[in-house]
Amino acid sequence: MVEALSITVILIIIIALFYDFVNGWNDAANSVATIVSTRVLTPIKAVGLAALMNFIAFLIMPQAVAKLVGKGIVDVSIVTPTLILAGLVASIFWGMFMTNFGMPISMSHTLIGGFIGAGIAAGGFKVLISGGIILIIGFLVLAPIIGFIFSNIFAIGLFRSVRRYRPSAINKVFGKLQLVSVSWYSLGHGSNDALKTAGIITALLISVGYMDPDAAIPAWVILSAHASIALGTLIGGWKVIRSMGMRLTKLRPVDGFSAESGGGLLLVLTAFIGIPVSTTHVIAGSIMGVGAAKRMTSVRWGFARNIVAAWILTIPVTTFGGFVVYKIFNLLNIVV
């Protein structure tokens, strides 16, 4: 199957998979920050478990997210390899830049923003599929709020049910349960984020006539996307992990279990519905929800504001970046 593709298209697929690697690199914190900060697992063991669950997600979860990202942002009739490449370049640059500073961002935002910007540069605002974009951005905004609510309610109920037990006994039990909850969350992470990249590769394959718009996504696309994000997770963005797991609020095993369970439930639900959400937003909202369940002052709201500011900047920056990169490609006659 792959041999039928041109060298240029294969190179763009490799770049898309590198984006997926950066996604896992930044978003490793989403999967492991809680279990590392509670000291249930060492960082190396934690990212190894998260990487495994990110990879095997393709065996369990549906492909609805990939289909929406691949066909629900820009009119597929104007999608070209050049457009996809421009969007990926903008996304990768912002993702690596923010990861270097230890700032957890939504790689979903970077990808969608870059794709929107390149689409506008190629065909104007009329090529944008407003319904798909509104749905995606709406849930990117709602994700931290819902994650906060899910985990806050879950944590309050859990705290009340275990308050009569000794802290040492609670830590021992929930330290073991965290192995289950972090696996659950990582499964949802892989099903959401890896499939976004699969959606972009699908759009590329459709644009070059390799596959019909209504055809099923090839198995090698799904497998390679999951493998790339798993590898990125295995490398781990340690600065981001410290930011998410130690600077937002202090976590105990019962807190980590609550955040991972509430956030994982939201990720799995949206994966089955087919709505791509930001796993960064989900886990950050979940961690804050658990912290607020103890007391509002246990959340470092100043640092939380810095994270939200980075989130707000991401779509405008990558949209501008995708637009500029596409225009530069045209100016330099780099058309593929």
UniProtKB/TrEMBL annotation:
It is a multi-pass membrane protein. It is found in: Membrane. Keywords: Membrane, Phosphate transport, Transmembrane, Transmembrane helix, Transport. Signal peptide: none annotated. GO terms for molecular function: phosphate transmembrane transporter activity. The chain crosses the membrane at residues 6-25, 46-66, 78-98, 110-129, 135-159, 194-211, 217-241, 262-288, 308-329. GO terms for cellular component: membrane. It comes from the Archaea. GO terms for biological process: phosphate ion transmembrane transport. Potential transporter for phosphate. Belongs to the inorganic phosphate transporter (PiT) (TC 2.A.20) family. This is Phosphate/sulfate permease. It comes from Candidatus Methanoperedens nitratireducens.
